[in-house]
Amino acid sequence: xxxxxxxxxxxxxxxxxxxxxxxxxxxxxxxxxxxxxxxxxxxxxxxxxxxxxxxxxxxxxxxxxxxxxxxxxxxxxxxxxxxxxxxxxxxxxxxxxxxxxxxxxxxxxxxxxxxxxxxxxxxxxxxxxxxxxxxxxxxxxxxxxxxxxxxxxxxxxxxxxxxxxxxxxxxxxxxxxxxxxxxxxxxxxxxxxxxxxxxxxxxxxxxxxxxxxxxxxxxxxxxxxxxxxxxxxxxxxxxxxxxxxxxxxxxxxxxxxxxxxxxxxxxx
Length: 268
What we know:
Elements: H1 2-30, H2 35-42, H3 44-53, H4 60-87, H5 93-102, H6 106-124, H7 126-131, H8 146-174, H9 194-210, H10 221-232, H11 236-247, H12 249-257
Helix pairs in contact: 1-2, 1-6, 2-4, 3-4, 4-8, 5-6, 8-9, 9-10
């Protein structure tokens, strides 16, 4: 079991390294490093498929799981690709800031930044690996697998919530009358970052699904790591910093009354 896991993780790491090297080359030519976001999201589907194909025994739970990953990966990847294309040749402000901070070393440092993104893909794919690694000795029908059912329900809730939040924000931004204003429609009235919350819920669903597999508890690393990045690193902190710069007091008022992450009722 351990040897099989290490082999599959090694193959996934090799795939991610090639994927990110090619992405870096294209991004450098386009002078737009933002495309890594779309590629990163789309890259999870082939990793999940590779984990399943690499098993001698392919349980119906594994097949369902790969379809779940593929659907989420494609939706998010296409959504990000469209957003990036609509702003091209302008680079996302996060990458533009990194390019400025790194100066003449930007291309070289961005290469290793992309490789780090690929390594993160592999770490986050742990629940994928365990969900696809059930043995013939523990064959449980899908309809009796409560971990799979619960994980699927959480995944579906997260997917629908994230899709709705993305659509509501896109509709708000498309209206010229809303330029410079803070989106507080729909889910955005209850959370400053509902898209991040429901994205995290998708990863909780993956981890719960994997709990029915041997060593599946290791898959809990994925939602824990994702939560850390969203709350403390590149998610909420960077997004809020940029929003405060562009919207000022209006966004400060939004911060005082609206939950940062979990959707909840407004504060008075």
